[in-house]
Amino acid sequence: MKYFALAAFLIVFAPAVAEETPPIPIPDGFVAQRLDVTKGWVARPKDWFYDSHGTPSGWLWTIAKEDPTKGEYKTGMRIQMLVDFKKHGMTPEAFVRDFVRRKRAEDTVLSDCTESQVNQFERLCLEVLEGKYRIQYSAFWNPSGDDVFISTFGAPAEDWDAVRPIQKVMSNLVIIGADFGKPDEGKK
Hints:
Blueprint: E1 11-12, E2 30-35, E3 39-45, E4 49-55, E5 58-64, E6 76-82, H1 92-106, E7 108-112, E8 116-118, E9 121-130, E10 133-141, E11 148-156, H2 160-170, E12 173-176
Parallel strand pairs: 1-12
Antiparallel strand pairs: 2-3, 3-12, 4-5, 5-6, 6-11, 7-9, 8-9, 9-10, 10-11
């Protein structure tokens, strides 16, 4: 088993410089997609779909080649924000470590990374083969916080080489923007 850092799968939690200016590169064929709620940014392929909604445990953003509002999709990225671990008697770190441990036990591990710090967050990541899908997971927690972010990019294994460049662009995202926690313009 090869161990290496998934440097291309780096999620940035740095604040954006200006409200409407994404602090990430937006290459040709992509558009800047604002992540509502946290006011972050991700580069989305122009012809891909975006969905965002609350869940019982937090929030879920999906960017996919197929419309995720119509059911399952095959190729895309999902970003989950999970909140309020302390009131359930678990720490965010314990949740992430258990999540990664279960993925290692259940799936064929293609690569992983050692724990690393990304701004105020700690990160663990894992690339696996789950049935016929190749998936990259990256899980983040703030040691003094109560939330977890899990980013998942997946595609059918036979399509991986074709979508790998898209995954690399999308992995350079900002989940928590500079305007997080500030009221939206025009709303009272």
